[in-house]
Write a structure and sequence with these properties.
Length: about 375
């Protein structure tokens, strides 16, 4: 029985974080007017808002002068002003615009001072923030090439969408391997509309390496889930593909003729021992069914809450730092995650190209 080294699978609260990438901070619809919103992301307190021109921004919620949270101050649509001494900052660049206490006798140039600002972009209803590695220096939008901002795959201009979120009381590693776990469905998600324990049968899926991750290759989905059965009304073959991409993304695409459903699920570290799961789905199926978005969100919320409840219960056991293991094919995706994460960290340390730990396609077998 294969196991994973303790150095890669910490049962306690700590998890090594992956920087130099995009993470969803919060729903962008909350950023309106002159309202500032705060969030913890990767253990960093952040303040976000929307400028008068519509562009969103993210800053470290700390004035570089004396450390008071900038969110305690004021935002006029153009500048964020510190409550303590009135220092004003342009929020996208972080550049200081004004220090009221300076006199004509002072030689300090305020524009040479910067609060920490992070590249921030809006996609699929989220404010995505690029978080550089600590100590790498100031990184502002436009200064260097950044990877593309993640988004839900789409196969047409007309579609509906919905968002789900839940907080998880565990480190990001446990959240992610729970996200990709193929064997928990019949137990955690038992329900008349999804699966029953009695529906367990052997699965055989082909996986292949992709940049920064792996793919469950396009295949006909299992027939033991009601949502897939519903697509049968279109009379076309149904296929699905699932990708996992570092640092935290699971893409799923379901096709049925010209009908499609796609989702992007992320597990984002907020603080040391907690993370947040966000799901954004887009689809063009059942577009004539009344209240289809409300119905999808209702059942989707039930699904996510089942995962959340299980993670809350798991956290009770993890408090005592038990010895853990990963076994055989059902846990192979989790093993790949840890190997990919280690490979990326090594590449960042050495400056060499990342060496992918999966050397070719492989077929896995498990029962679920």
């Amino acid at each position: 029985m294969a196991t994973t080294p303790a150095s890669l699978m910490a049962s306690g609260p700590s998890a090594t974080l992956l920087y130099n990438d995009w993470y969803p901070a919060l729903r962008s619809e909350t950023l309106r007017g002159r309202q500032l919103s705060t969030v913890m992301l990767m253990g960093i307190p952040m303040v976000l808002g929307r400028r008068g021109d519509g562009r969103i921004f993210a800053m470290r919620d700390s004035c570089p002068h004396r450390g008071i949270p900038l969110s305690c101050g004021w935002f006029d649509g153009q500048s964020v002003t510190c409550k303590y001494h009135g220092w004003a900052f342009e929020p996208v660049s972080g550049q200081c615009r004004e220090i009221p206490s300076l006199t004509p006798l002072d030689i300090l140039d305020p524009t040479r001072i910067y609060a920490t600002a992070f590249p921030c972009e809006e996609r699929d209803g989220y404010a995505w923030v690029y978080v550089p590695e600590p100590g790498s220096g100031k990184l502002r939008a436009g200064e260097s090439a950044l990877p593309p901002v993640p988004e839900v795959p789409k196969f047409g201009t007309r579609y509906r969408s919905a968002h789900l979120t839940a907080d998880l009381p565990c480190n990001v590693d446990h959240g992610i391997i729970g996200l990709m776990d193929p064997a928990h469905g019949p137990f955690v998600h038992q329900s008349w509309w999804w699966r029953k324990k009695a529906s367990i049968h052997e699965k055989e899926k082909r996986f292949e390496p992709i940049p920064q991750g792996f793919r469950m290759a396009t295949h006909a989905p299992s027939g033991n889930s009601a949502p897939y059965k519903l697509l049968g009304v279109y009379g076309e073959p149904i296929t699905t593909a699932i990708d996992f991409v570092l640092p935290n993304r699971r893409y799923e695409t379901i096709r049925c003729g010209d009908k499609w459903f796609a989702s992007l699920t992320t597990v984002t570290p907020t603080v040391t021992n907690a993370c947040r799961i966000d799901v954004c789905g887009a689809w063009n199926v059942f577009h004539r069914v009344p209240f289809v978005t409300a119905i999808a969100k209702f059942f989707g919320n039930m699904f996510v809450r089942q995962d959340q409840e299980t993670m809350i219960q798991q956290a009770q056991g993890l408090k005592y730092d038990p010895t853990l293991m990963l076994i055989d094919d059902a846990d192979r995706p989790a093993k790949w995650y840890f190997a990919l994460k280690q490979a990326r960290l090594e590449a960042q340390r050495t400056g060499e190209p990342m060496r992918h730990p999966i050397d070719g396609p492989v077929t896995l077998h498990w029962r679920s």
